Amino acid sequence: MRPGWAAAVLAAPLLAGCVDAGRGQRTNPLFAGADPSVLIEDGQTWLFPTGGGDRLYGWARTADGWRRSAPLIRMSDIAWIADGAPEHFLWAPHAFRANGRYYLFYSVGPQNPTPSRIGVATSDRIDGPYIDSGRPLLTGGNGFEAIDPMVFADPALGKTYLLAGGSAGARLRMFELAPDLLTLAREVAIEQPERFTEAPFLHRRGDLYYLSYSHGSYNRGNYSVAYSTAPGATGPWTYRGEILASAGRYKGPGHHAFFENADGSWSIAYHRWEDVAGEGPYRGQRQVAIDRVEYRDDGSIAPIVMTP
């Protein structure tokens, strides 16, 4: 996701969201932010969004709403950013648990005039603090923008993959991670999915793999989520269509994460613009939301309905 959030949540409230007394659910929107990833820990849902400029936060669902953590990591904690480049931001984090630890992958940019980069930090606690690995994991350039990291552990092959890629070149790349998850073992050759712009997300349901991603411009009404499916984590991919798009007062939904609930149902976390007119470019703050996902009998995903 492009870093068009200069006015993002630098001073967000520590508690956000409200309770729908009839269903016991948090109502949308949850809080200001963008690009959420999801990690469920001991039955508690955590969201890790963009929103803080020079720092990243986690948000935990509680009985009273969504509570923001202390900063997980700051730019001042990442020595390799201070390299004479222009002003940078942190965005699009992805949280992952493995090896008895927590890993936080994140984007550092903007892309020009220096390449964008992806870093990774670790912690013994989900709420941090996270310690940077000491070097970039992946650097952009030559038509590739190193943003929007997503990590997927393939239960079939026992391998863990990093997917990344963004709108400057709209190119997706995939890498097998080394066991320490701090280095790249090798690049995996994959075909470019149809209508890919940025924000890849890979999940598996049954024997089918779903590669979903954002298409369009992040601050316009054409921003949306499409998906493809395959029999394996690396393809070959079959395009299945668009499943999340602007509707009514909700515009430009995207940069999402699928997750399975305790009852076996599925949900999607994403961001959207609210109460904006026309096709953009929109300005202000995006909002994080969660809605239900419905899979049809043939494995396809029904269009997702954005709820208030």
TrEMBL record:
InterPro entries, sorted: Glyco_hydro_43, Glyco_hydro_beta-prop_sf, Glycosyl_Hydrlase_43_Enz
Superkingdom field: Bacteria
PROSITE patterns in the cross-refs: PROKAR_LIPOPROTEIN (PS51257)
One Pfam family here: Glyco_hydro_43
Keywords: Carbohydrate metabolism, Glycosidase, Hydrolase, Polysaccharide degradation, Xylan degradation
Tagged with keyword Transferase: no
Family from the record: Belongs to the glycosyl hydrolase 43 family.
Name of the protein in question: Beta-xylosidase
Species this chain originates from: Sphingomonas japonica
